[in-house]
Amino acid sequence: MDAYTERLSIPMAGNHDRRTTIRFPMREEVRYRLLNTKAPGTSGSGRTLNIASGGILFTTEGQLPMGRSVEISVNWPARLDGTCPLKFVATGRVVRSEADRAAVRIERYEFRTRGAIGAAAGA
Questions:
Q1: Taking Cα atoms as reference points, which of 56, 54, 92 lies closest to residue 74?
Q2: CA end-to-end span of the chain, whole Å?
Q3: Mind giving me the DSSP string for the chain?
Q4: Which pLDDT score is estimated for 17?
Q5: What is the mean pLDDT of the segment spanning 20-31?
Q6: Which domains does the chain have, with CATH numbers?
Q7: Minimal CA–CA distance to 8: which of 27, 22, 29, 26?
Q8: Which among 36, 28, 12, 16 has a CA at the least distance from the CA of 75?
Q9: 7 or 32, greater pLDDT
Q10: Could you tell me the pLDDT band of residue 34, with boundaries at 50, 70 and 90?
């Protein structure tokens, strides 16, 4: 296995690693927001730690509530046709949570194009 396909084990306190999918190390900016709530502190940003076909582990600004639906947006490192920046947008449920990180089981995802950096408004 190479560095991109090695199985990563980043345990959270008291949890045994039972994952059967390969985790890919990824350090990209992530924005998240809890769905179906208007309470303060329900959105924030962090960094991805790893990602797999069924889930994502990322740092958080505070502890996310277990079982809650969350939307995650990650600036994707690959570009469409080598030029157009992409964003990975997923919704899922918080399945593990600590004060500074959370794991989300991905239920639905899509890739979107990101606006060009420095593009004029309305162009």
A1: 56
A2: 45
A3: --TTTSPP--PPTT------SPPEE---EEEEEESS---TT-EEEEEEEEE-SSEEEEE-SSPPPTT-EEEEEEEEEEEETTTEEEEEEEEEEEEEE-SSEEEEEEEEEEEEEPPPTTPPTT-
A4: 52
A5: 81
A6: 24-113 (2.40.10.220)
A7: 22
A8: 28
A9: 32
A10: very high
Instruction: Return d(Cα 54, Cα 19) in angstroms, integer.
Output: 10
The C-alpha atoms of residue 30 and residue 70 are separated, in whole angstroms, by: 12
* Tokens at 24, concatenated: 């890919």
Beta strands 24-25 and 101-113, pairing class: unpaired
Structure tokens at 26: 């990824």
pLDDT at 105 over 80: yes
Q: Is the pTM of this model over 0.85?
A: no
